[in-house]
Amino acid sequence: MMIKPSKVVFISEELERDFNSLKEDDPLKKGMVRAIQDLKENAFSGIQIPKRLFPKEYVQKYEINNLWKYDLPRGWRLMYTIAPSNEVDLISAILEWFDHKDYEKRFNY
């Protein structure tokens, strides 16, 4: 498995505000903090989603060409894409997070 550090960003200021508004003791926030740390250490620490399963909304809105899922506590999922920032660095851009029910809806399972 390739290990490649990355800078982690939120795809929008609104998404970052949503994350920052979570209470520090919220298990979801704790899981996301751990996910962000893992992604900083290795952009490829999630599970890669096959292109044929990409939600159209992600492709249209963010023009992604790769998609990754990071499993959070209690069945929540964090979706992110990896983009190059220069020749050596990567950026892991968090697209959204949601519970299992909304995950199934987004991916038409």
At a glance:
This protein is α+β, with helices and mostly antiparallel strands.
Task: Describe the structure in your own words.
The protein is an alpha+beta fold and 109 residues long. The protein has a single domain, classed as YaeB-like fold. The protein is 35% helix and 25% strand. It has four helices and five strands; from the N terminus they run E-H-H-E-H-E-E-E-H. It has helices at 13-21, 27-41, 56-62, 100-106; strands at residues 7-10, 47-48, 68-71, 77-84, 90-98. The chain has a five-stranded mixed β-sheet with strand order 1-5-4-3-2. The chain is globular, with a radius of gyration of 13 Å. The mean pLDDT is 94.
Essential attributes:
4 helices, YaeB-like fold, five-stranded mixed beta sheet, 109 residues
Strand adjacency order, main sheet? 1-5-4-3-2
* Total count of domains: 1
SSE-based structural type: alpha+beta
Q: At the third CATH level, what is the topology name?
A: YaeB-like fold
Summed up, the helix count is 4
Number of strands: 5
| General shape | globular
How is the main sheet built? 5 strands, mixed
CATH superfamily: RelE-like
CATH class: Alpha Beta
> What would CATH call the architecture?
2-Layer Sandwich
Distance between the termini: 28 Å
What percent strand?
Answer: 15-25%
Order of helices and strands: EHHEHEEEH
Draw up the topology in text.
Elements: E1 7-10, H1 13-21, H2 27-41, E2 47-48, H3 56-62, E3 68-71, E4 77-84, E5 90-98, H4 100-106
